[in-house]
Write a structure and sequence with these properties.
The chain has 3 helices and 4 strands, in the order E-E-H-H-E-H-E. It has about 100 residues and is of the alpha+beta class.
Length: about 100
């Protein structure tokens, strides 16, 4: 079974971070970097994670694992709310109020 996680991309130098959700584990960082390269060439749309991906010190951290019975979208929203209020770094996620 694929483990679902809430993760963080972080640059300590710029004091910025991005929170996301995935079933890809650390391979998600590889996908972010691939998409960023395509974006630079004009072949892909913008994602706010690129603000962190472009930093040489970008780190991928798992914030928490998601239980099978938990809604991953709700877990991501809770993590964003918590870390936005409790971390000295700036959140770069573009949030939409649906």
């Amino acid at each position: 079974m694929v483990q679902r996680v809430i993760y963080c991309l972080m640059s300590k130098a710029k004091k910025i971070f991005y929170i996301g959700k995935t079933r890809q584990g650390s391979q998600r960082l590889v996908k972010h970097r691939h998409d960023y390269k395509r974006f630079e060439k004009g072949d892909y749309g913008f994602c706010s994670s690129y603000k962190v991906i472009e930093c040489p010190d970008c780190e991928f951290l798992i914030l928490r694992y998601i239980d099978d019975d938990e809604n991953i979208n709700d877990a991501e929203k809770k993590a964003i709310k918590y870390y936005r209020q409790n971390v000295e770094y700036r959140l770069v996620n573009i949030l939409h109020n649906h």
